Amino acid sequence: MSPTRERRRPSDQDARERAALARERRGRRSEEERRRTRAARPKPSPRTRANRPNRQVEIRRRWVALLSVLTVVALVYLLFFSSTLGAQDVSVSGSRTVSADQIRTAAAVPAGQPMLRLSTGEIRDRVAAMPGIATVEVSRSWPNTVEITVTERTAIAFFDSGPGGDGVHLVDGGGVVFKTVSARPPGLPELKLPKVSADDPVTRAVTAVLGVLPEQLIKQVTTASAKTPASVEFTLANGKIVRWGTAEQTDRKAKVLAALLTQDGKVYDVAAPELPTITP
């Protein structure tokens, strides 16, 4: 009878080794699976990784945007609604006979109104409506001043409304009647016209001629008249009459007239300076 082979019972050490081997195999499989999973994922490009803002950068950007909006809102309020940059002073320059206070009253600048909301055009129109003002410029001088620069009208002649009228009226170079005085101003010629108005072509023609006459000649003129815009004539202090015509060729007419006045005569016609005449 053959001897019976005894089956060897596994020891505890063997069981531990087999368990460790199984864990190692599972670990290798898990590691290989993780590698395959990572390999299957799309890799971000270097540009994407570089442009990906972190949380702090994003928060900083949001704060900057919020502060920018608040700054714009504050500036809009300051410039358009706050009296901090509002009109507080009105400076007037160029006035001589019209007082600065009269100009400020006519300008009617709203006190405290924000400078950017002021209508300089409306202020200019109100001042320009004053009879003695020829031109007006209005500008803003930050932070709180409105500057008004005026040019007053200069009288070039006058006309007398006569008995029962309202006095002596001053007229500028554009034919504008802008001031009434109590007495005839010395040194100014008198207009002898049926009508004196800036809308009258004859008035404008006469004042245009007076405005371009040489200084030494205008001082001798006592009266000026015309029946049509092309028939301007004036009387000199010595009683001689000059038929001037239109305001064209002023320099040539003045030279011709200076030569003619050395000769005796009553009427000197230089309307056509190339064919001047003298009437005894």
Task: Kindly report the average pLDDT value.
Answer: 86
Report, as a whole number of angstroms, the end-to-end distance.
188 Å
The third-level CATH topology of the domain at 157-279 is: Rossmann fold
Low-pLDDT residue spans:
none
Estimate percent helicity.
25-40%
Order of helices and strands: HHHEHHEEEEEEHHEEEHEE
Number of helices: 8
The CATH C-level name of the domain at 157-279 is Alpha Beta
What is the strand content? 15-25%
Q: Strand pairing plus helix content: what structural class?
A: alpha/beta
User: What is the tally of beta strands?
Assistant: 12
Major sheet attributes:
6 strands, mixed
What does the radius of gyration come to?
49 Å
- Which outline best applies? rod-shaped
Strand order of the largest sheet: 7-8-9-10-11-12
Please name the CATH architecture of the domain at 157-279.
3-Layer(aba) Sandwich
